Amino acid sequence: MKLAVTKGFYSSLIALSLAATLVSCATDAPPPAPPAPPPAPAGPPVALATAISDAAAVYSDYIEKVSVMKGEFADGAAIQAQLTAAESYEPNQLAHGAVAYAAIVAMQEPAFRSSLRGYATNDATRADLVSRLLANPAYVSVLPGADIAARRVVLALSSDGQSVYKAGAAVKQTAYDIQKQKWSREFVAEREARLAAAKTNSVTLASVESDDSAKLLAAALSGSGLVTRATTGQTTGSAPAAGGDSVTFTPTSATTPATPVATDASSIVATTPTAPTVFDRPDLFNQPYTQAVNRALTIAALAILGEGGESRSATLVSLLDDGDGQRCLSMSKLNLYQCLAVAKPHYEDVFCLGQHVLMDTGQCLGKMSSNALSFDPIKRVGFKADGTSAYADPKPYIKPAPPAKKKAPAKKKAAAKKK
User: Compositional bias of type Low complexity: which residue ranges (predicted)?
Assistant: First the structure.
């Protein structure tokens, strides 16, 4: 009897042990998965010195101000106010600002950003690329996506240039239109002081609007948010926007031969192109790019690589100096001084404003954007009777009509006859 109890007791223990083992096997969690591998290094974040966004803000503010100017003047004071506003830029600062603005435009191109971020992940590759870019800004043109980014830049700068040029052309036309109004023929008061003020306004640096600079910097770092003034859908090679491209350009004399249009000097008249070119004209985007475009792309590339932060501010600022744009804008200032020095009636000041402040400045921006761009009308050539050439230029410099001679009173005429 005792043995039977013992056997039953141990049998129960064995059964309980087996059950516990089965329960344990059923409830134990699987072993944890191995940890995920560490992410590949992404390289330094996109960085751009505030000196670049500050310069771009000055440029953008000036373009917004002058591109909407109209030739609407009620008196001499209105002319002087608009002249002062438009002439108030320092050539180096405006040229630098154009390149800085173009760099931020280039940073909006996704293809350019993605390719450069790929280079940024490897320290050695990134350092080698930075070295090449700093040694030769034109090197940037061979990088993947640079051609599309360059297209954006050309479109943005040329659009700005044309908007300023067109505003100037309208103002210049006003110089002819208002000559019928008596007040426009009156001489400008304090002409020498007005010329001195123009020279002072041309060497005074414009202040930076911090909010505008901050918005441009945010657009550069994020790669989105900047809306340029280009009115075409051709920015990244896509189909034209609905309605087509509304902006036209005049080809340069280098790409368009002069055409004989007359055999008699009396029949030569100013003409405009019969088949104007458009933004997506291929030669506008041909290499070699201008200094301004190459330098803008280089600044953008350094920033996207993460090598354009405050520590490189001085280097980036030096890249803003394209040379050609500064010389062009400085020459427009000299032409303005000469114009104001000889201008006397109010309508001549309007001519100086339209031609040498607005049109010349717009032309300089066009030249900074593309080697194949000019806003000047085509000069079509004809021939005089003696076989020499005669150009059908636009209207010549304004020359006031000689004053009409006053008629002598009838009594004085009679007295003169008696004598």
Answer: 245-260
